Predict the 3D structure of the following.
Amino acid sequence: MTETVDSPPSAPEETPPKSWQPGWLVRATGVGASLGKTLLMPALALLAALIFGAFIIALTDLDALALLDDEPLGALRQMAEGVSVAYKALFVGAFGSIYGLSETLFAATPLILAGVAVALGFRAGMFNIGANGQMLIGGMAAMWVGLHVTLPSVLHIPLALVAAVLGGAAWAGIAGLLKARTGAHEVITTIMLNFIAFFLVEFLLRIPVFQEPGRNNPVSEKLPPSAQFPEIFGSDYRVTIGLLIAIAAVVFVNWLLFRSSLGFEFRAVGFNPDASRYAGMNVVWLYLGVMSISGGLAGVAGANQVMGLPPYQATPVFAGTIGFDAIALALLGRSHPVGVLWAGLLLGALKAGGRAMQAAAQIPLDLVVVMQALIIVFIAAPELVRVIFRVKPMEKEPTRLTRGWGG
Amino acid sequence: MTATASSAAQVRVRATAEERRAAFVGLILIGLAAFVFWAFGLNVNGDLEATFRLALPTDRYTDIDWVVNTRTLAFVVAGIVGFLGGMQLRRSNVKRTNVMLAVGLVFFALAFLAWAAAGKSFSLVGMLRSTVILSVPVTLGALTGLMCERVAIINIGIEGQLLASAFAATVLGSAFGLWAGVFGAVVVGALLGAFLAWLTIRFRIDQIIAGVVINIFALGLTSFLATRVLAQAQDLNAAPQFASIRIPILADIPLLGPIFFNHNFFIYATFLLVVILHVGFFYTRWGLRSRSVGEHPRAADTVGINVFRTRYRNVILGGLIAGFGGAFLSLTQVSRFEENMTAGVGFIGLAAMIFGRWMPFGALAAGLVFGFARALQQKLGILATPIPSEFLLMTPYLVTLIVVAGLAGRAIPPAADGQPYTKE
Amino acid sequence: MLANDDVSLSVAPGEILALLGENGAGKTTLMNILYGLYKPDAGEVLVDGNLLRLSSPDDAIAAGIGMVHQHFMLVPVFTVSENVYLGMEPASPVGWLDKRAGSRMVREISERYHLEVDPDALVEDLPVGVQQRVEIIKVLSREARYLVFDEPTSVLTPQEVREFFRIVQGLSEDGKGIIFISHKLKEALEIADRIVVMRDGKTVAEVLPDQVTEEELAKLMVGRPVDLVVRKERAKAGEPVLVVRDLVVLDDRDHRAVEGVSFEVRSGEIAGIAGVQGNGQTELVESIMGVRHSLAGTVSIGGREVTAASPRDIHRMGVAHVPEDRQRSGLIIDFTVTENMILDGYYARPYSRGIQMDWGEAARAANRLVEEYDVRTPSIGTQVSSLSGGNQQKVIVAREFNRDVVLVVASQPTRGIDVGSIEYIHARIVEKRDEGAAVLIVSSELDEVMALSDRVLVMHRGRIVGEFDPETAGTTEIGLAMLGATT
């Protein structure tokens, strides 16, 4: 067939301006993710966040502010000193010593687990904000096995983990089912489930099945040693097998997404549920499936929080803010499991350092939360970073995930 | 073989999704009726009476009480709800499903309250008054969301806006007085709205991410400042409170008076705002243009409407409303700022917006429903029912979950919802 | 006078100029520049001798240029009046809308130009032909002196096209300059005073309609001689493969889109369903393919009832489907060519064993198919979004035709693609028919249906209203059926 020229790419006239947009959630993520290219942006984002953080620290230094009128120079010097003390503690706490490094790994463990959970969801087009709730339920399930089953460690821990997976999967499955059956948007349902989980756990920690005898507040009994994660670097460091489990999770999700047919389906549904339906995939089951697996992974993260930290007890806040941090991680890591691993280490460093910063310079840990928000913004809008640092943009299209409320 | 046009009327037709849902709701209503009959009727001592106080001690006509026999009421309610359920099961009732469900749930709540208050006295008027008060942040949140979504910008960050503006209201209110607090809150809400608009319009960041960022940012910053600054400077954490304004004559109407006409100005303002927004969206040029931007931005563009400017403007206006909501929280409800004091009310507002079908009056109605759930949770705590307190605390979130889970039917947002607009 | 890029055109008041070119030739881009939606990189636009700075649609409107877009710029949930006066609303200084004045204005224009429409109807309830009238009224209400129509007839029946031409004649007699953009040769020849042909972004010819033939025009559009007729032999029809009986299907808004449709398609024949889009064809096809539940009736393929079968089961029975919206239903445009090629069979051997995928096999298959179906792509690892429309469609055809096929269901198979790809796909479809498959074509391009099909069925408002033999029936007869008037 002789053709004079290959036809130009589809003209805009072909696609009617309907509200439908393919690949909404997944556009940002891992498409063409070569790590080298994507390393510069996160680095700059982090730098920008640190700079903002410095300003925030300086401007809320009440003692220094009080001096501003009388001794402006002295005040500024005090502010600068405050910032440097804080940041020095931050870096030492994260990297400055073997102990710091171990703390980073320790903090990174649940983040990585929750992060791959959320990243997996993103890949299939599900915005799983419910990781916190799934962690809570999964953790409680593990807790139950830990407290009420007697087995040697080598069996006890796996069984508890299985319970955690089932618990988290079931909790996430509620949101998945609602989305699949009724189209209820998972952002709202998972957030509501977070709150419900929190109160449920509060309740459970007051009943004899869980509550530590003799206590009035919602605290569980201590786990027996057979259900505690052993430390892998000796008793000086807090890193446990939880880290190995987290790495295993990364490997698993990587295989799942890119080497298994189920992962192929997840990715397809994430990019284009209509075409997936036409291709014969059962979109309903896939939504449910991905939420369940995602929830299961989050459940393991929850198990880590009770089985991997002394005093091996559960309180209603054992999930902390990890569920939300996981969102930042998934975005930072472009929803790629390996990217999430690196992002988890980074965020773990921030957390470990942040704790040190809090101890040394009385800077509340919430600053790390603020910096996280800034990092997300900078990652999601590479142009912003470019504007700040006058850097050439790496990728053209900013992160786009939303498709609207419809089912 | 030729093709023929058959007469569809003779063919047996399978049920549609709407009909299935109607039947499902019918079954739920019947189930509820049976539950009420058993749990609140048969299971209850036939002598027990619940006293619903219908007047506040401060009212003009006091001591109006409605005394019901719990068991009798339960039977009556069971009968009514069961009847409604039966009606639902007949296929012809598809359109009325939502109304039937709402009515059925109201009756259920009544029987439930009679049970919870059996043998005791319970201030029904107080609870209904609380409903109105507690509905305000939800309604304002829904209105904020509505302003943004009508121009096709999804605003998940309402929670953050409420929290941050509540903080501003507390601090500025403590330092400079009531109106400074309101002003500060409104400005902060608008600033965050502008930030959301800037991120999503200028940089085309995904709207949900931008919203999540605002929430995280607001939570982190307010918690940080609360610990670092407020803990030391206690006098910045004691905001003055607005007083209630009694509307003469109207406030003296029994039952309706204390529920609607004796509130602080925020609540009256909220009702007014609902009316203004409704009129604005459907009767003015501003409203027509805004809605066009939300439904078909390219069409709007081709007639010369500046899509970007319209979006910025409306999102900032939405932020003002959120700021107003934050001021309400700090300057009428509690005077101390607590970390994360909004506790999800912004998200409930989003659910109310969807439930209310992106209409101002719908947002009001939905806000009242959620307000009722929150009031219920409070009052039940006082009544010392056998239900554990933690489950009561779950109530508003459970209700939101159920509402959003499509018992409200398929909801249709503005057509361009969620997509950034590009002038190619 | 209008000029642009290295493209130059001019239109005089009262003249009808047809701008002809195939998809992707650059016509719409040109018009968008004219209307202020795009910025030109070079060149200028002059109206009545005055140079214009067009930076927004407002400027174009002010200059007297009005555009009726291919995909209507109408807000579905607004009324006709609201759509017309959007942007120039009759309102009090405060902003209060004067809705009655708006309706009045619409009625005036409607009467003056014989464009019947109800000002208070909701646009989403109107048939497409009427929606087009609303667009025209919108343009006229802004006192346009030059009207640009982008592919106006793609959504009309032959009768509606006649009606449209009458309106255009009327406007031109009224002194308006008209630019009529299309890829349809016959229409250009019929209505235009002058024809300009565009190809690959340049103007390549300017001719008068009575001095040029269809074949010459086609050659100018594509750059080489084009076969306007699909070469095929008589069909050798066998047993019925697809049997549809009394099918009733609801659309997304729970209206009955398909109202008791019955027909058959035999092996070795091509049955075409003609009809303007929106008469239930989409829902019919979706129902046959298992993607949409039917309310009543049955569908059987090869003797087996598949009414409630899943899309995958139907595929496995040997059904090839080319969906009408390739980017939405046929491809995952973020996926690579390879991934799209195995979209129908990824879950089984040879592409996966159990749950583990075999990407090596997939790559081998993709390479083979790209070769065999002449898909122009830099590599099999390229994202399908980078391919042209024609090549995207070829990926779908390659995937679907690459197995034992007993039934082909092709919906709008050549919409929006270049002529070369159109020829190719038509040839492959006929080839499948000759191999014994039953073929169902659904297309709103009557020419395509008539050229390809051995039998033509017409769908109107959810029913089959007529069956024709394309060799003997004429477009008028079929067009009447498309409007619902049965002979």
